[in-house]
Amino acid sequence: MAAATLRSVLRRSNLLPLFETRRLRDLLFFSSSVDAAAAVGGTMSPDPHFMVEYLENSCGFSPSEAAKFSKPLAHLRSTEKPDAVLNFMRSQGIDGAGIRKVISSRPKFLCYNVETNLAPKFQFLLDLGLSKSDIVYAIQNNNAILSLNIHRSFVPKLEMWERLMGSREHVLSCFKKTTWFFSHSVEKRIHPNLKFLTDECGIPEERVSMIVKSYPHFIAQKPESLRALIARADELGIPRHSQSFIWLLRSLHRASKTTVEANGELLRSFGWSEAEFLSAVKQSPNLLSLSPESLRRKMEFLINEVGYVPSFIADHCHLLQYSLEKRIIPRFRVLEMLKTKGLWTERGKFVYFVKLSNTKFMDKIVLPYKEKVPELLDIMRVAVLHQPPALATEVQSSERIIPFVSYGSNVVLEFVRSSPTEMILDLRNFWILCKLILNGGLNGIGKTSCCVDQDYHWFGTHPFLLHLRWCHFACRLNGLPRIKT
Q1: Most buried in the list 38, 174, 216, 413, measured by CB within 10 Å?
Q2: Rounded CA separation 264/342 (Å)
Q3: CB count, 10 Å around CB of 164?
Q4: At what angle do helices 430-440 and 409-417 cross, to 10 degrees?
Q5: What's the sign of the alpha-carbon dihedral 118, 120, 124, 126?
Q6: Looking at residue 394, what DSSP letter applies?
Q7: Tens digit of pLDDT at every position of the chain (485 positions)
Q8: Residue 87: left if φ>0, alpha if ψ -120 to 50, beta else—which one?
Q9: d(Cα 319, Cα 305) in Å, to the nearest integer?
Q10: HSE, side-chain direction, 13 A CA sphere, residue 392
Q11: Which of these, 185, 217, 202, lies nearest to 289 by C-alpha position?
């Protein structure tokens, strides 16, 4: 037991690396007859590497995890570098869970030099215009960023993405959403793919940039995968010089060959000819990436409920790109309700009203009749909340946030005013209504405050305080007295 005690003391003082295990055993051979017998018999199991205990105590790993992640760190003789790395990560805002996520995927990060490696990379990302929270998010979701060299990797990749996307702002915006952004090789993927598309396929670079801005994965795929994609697109007979060809490539990249074939068979089963199918694909290449079940339900609704014939849908195939629950069904029901009430006398094709933006549809169709037909707001609320009608009355989760930015502040206010008071006061539901305001940007006051009827409201960060402030605000909108706290 004396040997174990001395080892523990040496670990804590970082002196253990100065002693070799064999010499340490010799030194302690006569300290205990029990230890001596165990050493001679060879039954004493070796002590685990000191980094096992370190990973448990400093990072919060379980014993089994610590034993696993300590193996690449067996060469360490002190905790000097790991201490510096952990302190630096914590100073940058990476919490315990984030640190464990980073270290578990690449334990050797604990061997990095903070001054010459980590700190310059963090500063480089800050200088680009990223916030600390952006950097922390990126590293937690793609810690390979920390292994990149600034001048050999970061800068060339940044310049290439700026060239394709047109601005650094767009690159950084995508980087925040797509953490793999700087991971793929420019020499092995980006350059070869761009050269193939422009030189061999004859697609202008500006057209390639259009798809890269919205779907950067496309240009970062393996070159052999891109060539196979081109071959699949050629089979559909759309010329490479056509503007829709590049969007066809994106659609094929997002959908498996099985899905594409299933969608083709499905549309033909509704009576589409081969010519109608190819014409529709040329108009709306995204049809191929829809799920067959979603496509089937849209076709059935447009035929059985709206009354369109398959050939008409083929000529107006953009209808199939819209969401059935969020747009097609709600708008059809709104128009049908207005017709039954005798309030809609204008002649207009449903296909036109489906294409209208959310704001225009609300301003032109819903809001003018909200007093006479209040049910219209209920129909649209269901659509905006992204729920099928059967779930309209169920409790909303904090993950279903209302995307009211596209609706404008006036529409936001209409929805808030018509929201049930019990929903406003329910702590489980208030997140949706609160996000409605925060994302809606009412009166341009900001993300954490808004001003209605000269009454300024600030939303704190603690959930309960945020809830109370929201209740005050929502009650004000609904003409109710303030809640007493």
Answers
A1: 216
A2: 41
A3: 21
A4: 160
A5: positive
A6: S
A7: 444 444 454 454 454 444 444 444 443 333 443 344 334 433 333 456 899 999 999 999 999 999 999 999 999 999 999 999 999 999 998 889 889 988 998 899 999 999 999 999 999 989 988 888 888 888 888 878 888 888 888 888 889 999 999 888 888 888 877 767 778 888 999 999 999 999 999 999 999 999 898 888 899 999 999 999 999 999 888 899 888 899 999 999 988 889 999 999 999 999 999 999 999 999 999 999 999 999 999 999 999 999 999 999 999 999 999 999 889 999 999 999 898 888 876 656 888 899 988 888 888 888 888 888 888 887 877 665 544 433 333 333 323 333 333 344 455 455 555 555 444 444 444 445 555 554 444 333 333 333 333 333 333 344 444 444 545 544 444 444 443 43
A8: alpha
A9: 14
A10: 17
A11: 217
Beta bridge partners of 457: 450
| Residue entry with tokens 């704001």 | 359
- Give me 273's structure tokens: 């000819």
Using DSSP's 3-state secondary structure scheme, residue 170 falls into helix
Q: Measured at the alpha carbon of residue 257, what is the angle toward residues 288 and 250, in degrees to the nearest 5?
A: 50
> Which residue in this structure is represented by tokens 């605000």?
473
Could you tell me if 442 and 479 are in contact, meaning their C-beta atoms sit under 8 angstroms apart? no
Q: What value does the CA radius of gyration of the chain take, rounded to a whole number of Å?
A: 31
Rounded to 5 degrees, φ, ψ at 454 are: 65, 15
Q: How far apart are CA 102 and CA 97, in angstroms?
A: 9
3-class DSSP state of 41: helix
